[in-house]
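2 proteins. here.
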Amino acid sequence: MTKLQEKAVQICDILDTVYPDAVCSLQFEKPYELMIATRLSAQCTDARVNIVTKTLFKQYPTLESFADADLAELEKAVHPCGFYKAKAKSIKEMCQRVRDDFGGVVPDNMDDLLTLPGIGRKTANLLLGDVYGQPSVVTDTHCIRICGRLGLTKRHAPEQVEADLRKVLPPERSGRFCHQIVLFGRDTCTARNPKCHGCPLESFCVDPGFTKNPKKSEKRVDK
């Protein structure tokens, strides 16, 4: 085990203590519902998505109902999440593809998931981890920012950060780690004003100067 892998394990241990029950913040019951909710979450808060999907999943109770939905009505239903035209179009099309090409079952592998409209690696990883229990690394903005601060990666592109984290995180803990990082990023390691004093991961931070000049640090880390 490399020193960076040992560091990653120690970070996972601490996060397990602080966030023992961390799960995906998007609410869903069926695999395709998580697929849809994740598409809606692009440039939208999970809290708002959960409000919208609470009604949306009652209005469209099956995968088939989304696939056959009137596009204008679907646009209206997802309007509060922003970018409603693009999101409604991809939701309808992804459900059609799952129904017609995959027998109504959300694919369980990266290659097939990436063929679905509106699905990128971040969404695919979330589905593989939370639906199928496979090792997954969801590199959202929290993950990229915080893993850079912790020295687990020096890169910024999501796919590159994913590759770096797969090398150091225990596979069986990677999915949970990403959910924990989201919570950690919201309440402690925030983008502009991280609460470094008393941070449980302070000793692992490779750039403790965030509190002195957060704007400068943020520009360097999240560019």
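next one coming up
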Amino acid sequence: MLKVDDVHLYYGASHTLRGVSLTAEKGRIACVLGRNGVGKTSLLRAIVGLTPIRQGTIAWEDGPLDGLGPHARARRGVAYVPQGREIFPRLSVLENLQTGFAAAPRGQRSIPDEIFELFPILKQMLRRRGGDLSGGQQQQLAIARALVTRPQLLILDEPTEGIQPSIIKDIGTVIARLAARGEMAILLVEQYFDFARELANQLFVMDRGEVVMQGPKEELDEADVRRYLTV
């Protein structure tokens, strides 16, 4: 289980996260919802070690992540798919996938066959440069690159942003399939409520740096949730 407890984060004098707590369990999908600017990406960056926290604790599998750098967290099984994908545009698809080897144990520095079962389009484009792919294909590549590390905790920041509906559906199918195996916890940040409602087991709604609603999706009132997503 991922356990985030009473996390506070500052950018200078700006108090960006205010006592945020959440959990994510293997075999389940936890989704963080909220408008732009409420602290969702800052929360993910704190979990993966890209932004230091001022107060609180972050633990994975009963071991603290506090104080560990991003590379050490990756070796603990934490994989991050950032907002905007951040693939390497001048590297080929194959080379982008191979960058995931850096976090993998020496004996596991290979691309699992399952990657191409989940994303068959990538197998056809291994020699194509990442920057030549469509936005949806780049998102699939970014998720595949994270999976090359064989993570136990997969963190995705708005995987539907700027992507055509057909690929959104494909990505949703992949996320659900990964969770159903029961070997991986998935933490998802989204603004697209229908996508989150379809996939998530647990919802955490953020506003102004705080979690203002949380619980199993069946127990939360949809109108109340949507109120925190509209501008």
